[in-house]
């Protein structure tokens, strides 16, 4: 039996982690003209956090994988 009850995906994000996700979210909302209070923005935020929890910590890669274009 494993000594670890939770995977790293279950651990809370640190403030530095949240700052990365916030920057990516703001950049994508601006680039894709998404209102930050919309349901679409909430789904985008959830996707960014999920990608981050899966190990994608580079902001450029997060933007690309979450649906943004490079540039």
UniProtKB/TrEMBL annotation:
Protein name (database record): Uncharacterized protein
Originating organism: Rhizobium mulingense
